[in-house]
Design brief:
single chain; alpha+beta; D-Maltodextrin-Binding Protein, domain 2; three-stranded antiparallel β-sheet; 22 helices; 41% helix; Sugar ABC transporter substrate-binding protein; Bact_solute-bd_prot1; signal
Length: 558
Amino acid sequence: MNKFSKVAFMVMLVLMVVLTACSSSGNEGASKNESLTPSANTDSKDETGAASDYTFGEDQTFHSNEAVSYSMMYSDHENYPYKEDWRLWSAIQEKTNVTFDLSTTARTEYENQKSLLVNSGDAPYIIPKTYDESAFVASGQIVSVSDWVQYMPNYMKAVKDWGMEEDLKAKLKEDGKYYVLPGMWEVAGGGYSYIIRKDVFEAAGVDVEGQQANWTYDDFAAAMKQVKDFTGKPYVFSDQFKGDSTLNIAAVQYGVTAGWGVSNGMVFDHEKQQFTFANGSDDFKNYLGYFNKLVNDGIMDPESFTQEDDVAQAKFFKGDSYVINSNYQLLSDFKSKMQEPNSELYMITVPGGPKGMSQVETSRLENGIMISQNALDDLGEEEFIKMLRFVDWFWYSNEGQTLSLWGVEGETYTKDAEGNIVLNSDIYFNGLNEGATKQLNVDYGFGNGMFAYGGNAELKMSKMSEGERDYVNRIQTTREPRKLQPPIMATPEETEQMNLIATPLIDYVKTMTLKFITGQESFEKWNEYTAQVEANGSTRFTDMANDIFQKTKSLLGY
């Protein structure tokens, strides 16, 4: 592995392989760590995308001459329960001659089962839908896939064509490798924001479409106050997700972390090139003060942070509230449940704040696929590479991604004169074809969250309604992209030490966040809060994070 230290500066250890290896490399006789370039590739099998018993290659269909089956974990979603006769399975087999030996578990138990199988050494070969692989790296049961991506031409093409190098840095571990193949999108998504009752806001005199693109959070509060005064309702905003999505997206505009995105409280200053603990700062105090004022002014329902999602939704459906945090997929579902027939729902662009008008979504990575060490041990290097090339086709080629999302052309969808995908009118999916008798995921298995993530901009937009495309366009044209935060590439020992600090520290921050917002704790005791944050190890954690960054920053291109 010493040769990686000779790669030109500003390039990471393993991502160099991604950038420089030939996009159709297939030299099975080469070392898996060999950095291949197009000029170095002399294997005719790679140039033609063919191998002795299977075809593969950039934008080519993977097909095995002999039938092959790969073991795979499968998360069974209650909204579209597994069916053995889904068209998804036969469509994959027809194209590739590949079937799956599934280890199926309920979605709610998937993470627990994954941990059990990996840590016991009994994991199936392919482990999709992995959001965080960190806990499995030290076990030695997961392949460092960055050593093998040179054999995945469609994956490498996406990295190169879409400039994914910075995004992939987030997956690097302390050894300079990564252990999961993430889903990759050419463009970032819209993410979560606020669904409002546009009809009520406009009746209150708020010019929603004319103003929302320029709203800061203070402007948004003023608009909600206008609605409150007009309607006389006790609250305008009653949230779901126990406030965690709202706290997350608003934190971005205040330069702090909270809610779903609280993580370890670290924010990276790109000018100073150092981490700071954001959640004991004046920025954090201002952030909490904003939500505290919403509660005190009777704009935000304090039950937002304790109520179950169905309770929050019921208030919105009945017209007891006019704002709720959500994503565009739920907006489509909400439309059919509104009790006021003239309700007009609209998703606003996430407001800006003291730190600017930033896009909330930055990374274009999705959950991804881990590969079990069992696959390499059982199959041997040559057959292991063959399996990776199937994974490469299914999850990273446009053909495979289109199949997993939309199904079979002529059966579940057609294309119009411009080449746009048109879902059959009798099939419902993602807000398209409301009232259709069939569902793409329930009845066919396509549009399945286990497989359908990642693709080019055209594919991403193809699953959006006209309203969602407008929402994403508003984000991209009125909000500024943010720089990605570097990972803290800690060793297992350092990770353990940092977790011992972070767990009680962040638990305390989360508890006090809600107390300050709901008024259970006075801001007069802010100094006591910051002293306790320090006592819980915020400075120690920050110092460790910065020491690790200094040791590893050359691998990250800093």
